[in-house]
Amino acid sequence: MGKRPVPEVSQNTGPHVPVLLNEVIAALSPLAGARIVDGTFGAGGYSRALLEAGANVVAIDRDPSVLPYAEALSADFPNSFTFVAGTFSQLDSLAAEHGAIDGVVLDIGVSSMQLDEAERGFSFMRDGPLDMRMSGAGESAADLVNTLDAEPLANLLYAFGEERKSRRIAQFIVAARDIAPVTTTLELARIIEKAIGRKPGDAHPATRSFQALRIAVNGEFDQLVEGLFAAERLLPEGGKLAVITFHSLEDRIVKRFFDPEKGGPTQSRHLPQVQTEKRRWDEVSKARKPGSEELARNPRSRSSILRAGRRTAAPARPLSLDGLGVPKIRGAE
């Protein structure tokens, strides 16, 4: 890779501050000589910390804008860093040719650098095209907002954003686009604020709707589930997986993936006991959240949750959504 100047990425500076970094390092340790897959490379904060701890890193990302950061790390760690363009849902096949893997880290969600680039269309705080595509390909958020009928749009906002006022928001969007297409982030944010109002001190009224559209545009729940099962296939016994999520819908999926019994029906103690499947993960950590120091340093970390586990010898499961609590859009097949 050719060299391009990029800003230093560390725990304190740079376009994206990696959350729960110390906790991730601890969850994946020991790192000296280990080979780790950073499935959501971004600006490289986790990769750099892993490399500095002595690991070899195979980094994966589908966003073309991360290439300068990958090139910088490749220059700094030419013998221990490899970047592969692709989605983390395919991390097992993408990492297979790079040797045995000891650990995987997945940071699920939008990075600060994506939020801060108005032209990417992720943020309701900056005016830009209503895009939200991480890869730059496929349907954009504007496509969904301007083509879905009111009921499917409301169902999407409710399922993926837990937006309780989704029907009213959808009605206002349809009314606005009947006059002219909705094409910018601030335009959509204003429509949502007009629909449901805004109370002082509350989160921006567009927060949940923008989350829902971003998840739909990028197929994030499908990507998450496929990435989790890809990690299960890839990691050998003793391999470690650390996953950082940013809202309750994602965290529920990860929690139930590590411990499927959490998502199953409660069995009566009066019935014959059914033998459960062998566990694919042990040493599963409780949810870890940022401490007060990290919250003061990086307010965007406030919603982050880390869960981690260690792979057992049990064979990997076939991919299945059963019991994971993956949100489904009402009326969709």
Automatic annotation (TrEMBL):
Region (Disordered): 258-333
Any matching Pfam family: Methyltransf_5
Record's subcellular location: Cytoplasm
Biased composition (Basic and acidic residues): 276-297
A single MF term (Gene Ontology): rRNA (cytosine-N4-)-methyltransferase activity
One Gene Ontology cellular component annotation held by this UniProt entry: cytoplasm
Positions with biased composition (Polar residues): 265-275
Biological process annotations from GO: rRNA base methylation
E.C. code: 2.1.1.199
Gene3D superfamilies assigned: Putative methyltransferase TM0872, insert domain (1.10.150.170), Vaccinia Virus protein VP39 (3.40.50.150)
SUPFAM superfamilies found in the cross-reference section: Putative methyltransferase TM0872, insert domain (SSF81799), S-adenosyl-L-methionine-dependent methyltransferases (SSF53335)
Reaction(s) this enzyme catalyzes, per UniProt: cytidine(1402) in 16S rRNA + S-adenosyl-L-methionine = N(4)-methylcytidine(1402) in 16S rRNA + S-adenosyl-L-homocysteine + H(+)
Residues reported to bind S-adenosyl-L-methionine: 44-46, 61, 88, 107, 114
Predominant localisation class: cytoplasm
Record-linked InterPro entries: RsmH (IPR002903), SAM-dep_MeTrfase_MraW_recog (IPR023397), SAM-dependent_MTases_sf (IPR029063)
Keywords from the UniProt entry: Cytoplasm, Methyltransferase, rRNA processing, S-adenosyl-L-methionine, Transferase
Domain of life from the UniProt record: Bacteria
Family: Belongs to the methyltransferase superfamily. RsmH family.
PANTHER family hit by this protein: 12S RRNA N4-METHYLCYTIDINE METHYLTRANSFERASE, S-ADENOSYL-METHYLTRANSFERASE MRAW
Role summary: Specifically methylates the N4 position of cytidine in position 1402 (C1402) of 16S rRNA.
Protein name: Ribosomal RNA small subunit methyltransferase H
Species in which this protein is naturally found: Devosia limi DSM 17137
